[in-house]
Amino acid sequence: MEIKSFGNTWDGRKALCWTITNGSGAQLSLTGFGARITGICVPDRDGRMEDVVLGFDTAEEFTQKGRYFGTTVGRYANRLAGASFRLNGSVYKLYANKGTNSLHGGKSGFDDKIWKADITGEDSIRFTYESADGEEGYPGKMDVTVCYRFTEENEVEITYRAVSDKDTIINLTNHAFYNLKGHGNGSILGHKLKLYSSFFTPVNADMVPDGSILPVKGTVMDFTGLHPIGDQIDKTDEQLRLVEGYDHNFILQKEERGSLSKAAEVVEPESGRTMTVFTDQPGIQFYSGNLMKPCTGKGGREYGKRDAFCLEAQCFPNSMEVTHFPTPVLRANDTYEQKTVYQFGICRDKEKGE
């Protein structure tokens, strides 16, 4: 395992980067700044390695250009309406960092922390962080661990655990930006996507779920069959208009509650690279990179709008305000657990792209 300096954060904290290399030469790179994925190098159908994760060369650049790229998001991933929630009869006020709402943990969420790193094996690293009672407005002192393992089968296994000394809420995810052609190699609209979901949660003008649940069948949200992300992304549709593409929570079909089930498949026809997502979470956020700003990424490569996609396993956004959504409440001294796996592979048939 290689360890190197990753520069300093925006306020001068030192960061490190670890790279795990498996037997085939594929690599997973991580930094303690945000317990973050900084790179995943996997082969195409001809054996050529390419980094399929967008990112930057130093910790400081992440804050400047792409705060959430690759990071562990928390305490609460996605949006909470009104930057507040009610729990046990008390109202907790959070930092409103997205209009009147709280996004991805607030002003200084888990993405902005230096996590303690422990090498737990040749193929694995554990990151730990102690979130103070009241941090960003959330109740309870919370001990959080994120464990990454990179297998010989080119799987990135992410296991999350957390314990709080008070009742609180939690929703953790990873926010890596992917392009299976390789980072900086243009648009992802030709990538083919399948989601194991028959329903999604529509959003309002603030990009917060409005509480309704709608079927995807026959709509622009229908990814029940493998087809290009760009097929319908520019069609006249109110949900697409509100977020300039896709940025929606899809309700996953669970084989058994709490089990690890297939959530999504992505195929990039030209390179042959594939990605399959497995998770035990009830939802997955599909984001098509609509609001990405032009910037220079690692190695001098250029990024722009819709040059990456995200698939973020999660509890539903704003679930504290919608009683029929899954609950994100973590009771005092109980253990929160979440597991998501990103499996990288190859499709051999260039014509079919499958």
TrEMBL record:
GO biological process terms held by the UniProt record: galactose catabolic process via UDP-galactose, Leloir pathway; glucose metabolic process
Domain of life: Bacteria
Keywords: Carbohydrate metabolism, Isomerase
GO MF annotations in UniProt: aldose 1-epimerase activity; carbohydrate binding
Coiled coil: none
Pfam entry (one): Aldose_epim
Reaction(s) catalysed (UniProt annotation): alpha-D-glucose = beta-D-glucose
Protein name: Aldose 1-epimerase
Native species: Eisenbergiella tayi
